[in-house]
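Notes from hallway chat w/ T.B., transcribed later so I don't forget. T.B. wanted the structure written out for a chain they're using in a teaching module, and asked if we could keep both sequence and structure tokens in one place. Agreed to drop them here.
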Amino acid sequence: MSEPGTINVEVAYALPGKQAIISLSVAEGTTALEAARQSGVTQKFEGVDLENAKLGVFGKAVAPTQVLREGDRVEIYRPLIADPKEVRKARAAKSKERRQA
């Protein structure tokens, strides 16, 4: 149970081999970006750029200014290293080549 004027939220971040869900109490009216900053995630993971990271709440993208509610989980998304559409196209072309050979 949280203190009056505070809410309980979680901040999640994951790499392929390491992940963390950090629980914290924040003041009512705290934004997604503020909660991410308060979580200390940048001390646990090198290279996390909160100012430019995409954020979400339970899998739905939100603005950094999104005000959080009790129980929300802020997710910090890593940038994509490859365009998924291009990867699918390349995989389909490779599969087509194998079938024709």
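Follow-up for T.B.: The first strand starts at residue 6 and ends at 15. Might be a good example for the class.
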